[in-house]
Specification:
The protein is α/β, with parallel strands linked by helices. Helix content is about 30%, strand content about 20%. The protein is globular, with a radius of gyration of 20 Å. About 50% of the residues are buried.
C-alpha cells in the first residue's frame, strides 16, 4: 500500500509499504477513504516533535471502511467509521471516566519517555512519534486500528466524508477548548489562531452560548472564514491589539481566551522575536507568544483554554499575571470519544457543517506537496484532505481544478 512517511525536517515521502494486519483480537483494518493533514502534523514537519524515526507513517485524522476485524470486535466488514486520533482501551481508570486522552494502557512504547519528561504517560496517538507509542498513522491506503471495538465510531451513510472526517480530532478539539472556558450566556470569547482548530473553537463557542467571539490571526482567508462564522476579527500582529481588545470589552478584556496556535506562534512584539531567536539556537523548545498574549488580555477571573499543542518548556511565561488576575488555565489532548455522539448530533441537525474548513482536496500520492502548501499557507490553504483513491495530480492546472484556487 501507499503511505506518507517522515524522513526528517521538511522531508515527507509517499512510499509503498507492507499492508497492515490484525495483531490483536480487538483490532480492525480499515480502508482509508479520507485523511487530513493536521496543524499538529506541521510541528512534526517543522522538526519540533522529538522521538520521530525515519520511515514513520504519519496521520491521525482519518476515516474509512472496515475491511477486517479481530475475533473480539463488534465491528463488521463494510462498516463506515471515523477513528479518534488517540488510541484508548475503554477499560482503564481514565477511559471509564471518558478521559480517553489519558488512557493508561495504549502507550507502552512511549511510557518511560513520557514519565521522564512529563511525570506520567498519556494515551498512544496515531502517527505522532514514539513518545506517543510509535503507532503507524492513517495517511495511507489502509490502517490498523488497535482497540477498535471501543475507538472506531460508526457514521451515517447520508453524511459525506468531509462532514464527519473532522470528528477524528479538530472538531472535538475546538469544542473542548470552548467547553473548558465554562462560557456563560452572552460572554465574550477571544480566539488566537484561526486555523482549523480555531475555526471550530469559534463555532463551538457560539454553540455553547457566547454572545461574541473575537478572532485573531494575520492570514486574510482565515479571518474571512472566521467572520463568516459570526466572529469579529483583529490582526494579531497589530501592536495595538491589546488596547483594541480592552476597548471592545468596556476595559475588562475578553471573559475567556483560547490559544489555538500552540508552540509555533508568530508575532511582531519583542517577546515573539525573543522566542524566535531562542528556538533557533535550541535554547527554548516552544514559542509561546500567543499564550502570553491570551493571558495578558483575559479578564480577571476568566479562563485561558489551550488546545494549541505544546511539546516542551516555555520561557518568560507570565504565571504571575495569571495568578494576580485569578485566571484558570485548562489544557490537554482532547478526549475525543466523550464528544462524538453530541457533535454528530450537531452535524445531523445542520447546526454546523465541518466541511466548511476544507480548501484543498489532494491525492494521497501528492502528500509531500500538500504538506509544503499547508505549511507555507500557499494557495489560500486552510485545510487539506488527502484522498487515497484520487488519481495523482502531476500538473499544476489539474491541482487548480481540485482546489478551486488559481
Amino acid at each position: 500500500m501507499k503511505a506518507t512517511r517522515w524522513y526528517g525536517k521538511h522531508d515527507i515521502r509517499v512510499e509503498n509499504v507492507p499492508d497492515p494486519g490484525i495483531q490483536d483480537a480487538r483490532d480492525a483494518i480499515i480502508r482509508v477513504t479520507s485523511t487530513a493533514i493536521c496543524g499538529s502534523d506541521l510541528h512534526i514537519y517543522d522538526g519540533y516533535i522529538p522521538t520521530m524515526e525515519k520511515g514513520d507513517i504519519l496521520g491521525h485524522e482519518f476515516m474509512g471502511v472496515v475491511e477486517e476485524v479481530g475475533s473480539e470486535n463488534r465491528l463488521k466488514k463494510g462498516d463506515r467509521v471515523i477513528i479518534p486520533f488517540q488510541i484508548a482501551c475503554g477499560k482503564c481508570y481514565f477511559c471509564r471516566r471518558m478521559e480517553t486522552a489519558l488512557c493508561d494502557t495504549t502507550n507502552p512504547e512511549g511510557a518511560e519517555k513520557m514519565k521522564k519528561l512529563y511525570g506520567h504517560a498519556a494515551a498512544g496517538l496515531f502517527g505522532y512519534s514514539h513518545m506517543y507509542g510509535g503507532y503507524p498513522g492513517g495517511q495511507a491506503e489502509y490502517a490498523r486500528v488497535p482497540c477498535a471495538d471501543f475507538g472506531a465510531f460508526k457514521v451515517p451513510d447520508e453524511l459525506t466524508d468531509e462532514q464527519v472526517l473532522f470528528l477524528t480530532d479538530i472538531f472535538p478539539t475546538g469544542f473542548m477548548a470552548a467547553e473548558n472556558c465554562g462560557i456563560e450566556a452572552g460572554q465574550t470569547v477571544a480566539v488566537w489562531g484561526c486555523g482549523p482548530v480555531g475555526q471550530f473553537a469559534i463555532r463551538s463557542a457560539f454553540l455553547l452560548g457566547a454572545g461574541r467571539v473575537i478572532a485573531l490571526d494575520n492570514v486574510p482567508e482565515r479571518l474571512e472564514l472566521a467572520r463568516k462564522a459570526g466572529a469579529q476579527t483583529l490582526q494579531d500582529e497589530d501592536k495595538e491589539v491589546q488596547e483594541k481588545l480592552r476597548d471592545m470589552t468596556d476595559g475588562r478584556g475578553p471573559d475567556h481566551c483560547i490559544d489555538a496556535v500552540g508552540l509555533e506562534a508568530h508575532g511582531a512584539t519583542l517577546d515573539a522575536l525573543y522566542d524566535r531567536i531562542k528556538t533557533a539556537v535550541m535554547l527554548e523548545t516552544d514559542r509561546s507568544h500567543a499564550l502570553r498574549a491570551a493571558i495578558f488580555a483575559c479578564a480577571k477571573g476568566g479562563t485561558v483554554s489551550i488546545p494549541g499543542v505544546y511539546g516542551g518548556f516555555l520561557d518568560k511565561f507570565p504565571l504571575g499575571g495569571a495568578f494576580a488576575k485569578g485566571l484558570t488555565l485548562k489544557m490537554g489532548q482532547t478526549n475525543v470519544h466523550r464528544y462524538l455522539p453530541r457533535l454528530l448530533d450537531y452535524i445531523l441537525k445542520g447546526e454546523i457543517d465541518p466541511s466548511v474548513v476544507v480548501t484543498h482536496r489532494i491525492p494521497l500520492a501528492n502528500a509531500s506537496d500538500a504538506y509544503k502548501t499547508f505549511q507555507e499557507k500557499a494557495d489560500h490553504c486552510i485545510k487539506v484532505v488527502l484522498k487515497p483513491e484520487m488519481n495523482s495530480l502531476p500538473e499544476r492546472s489539474e491541482r487548480e481544478v481540485e482546489t478551486g484556487v488559481a
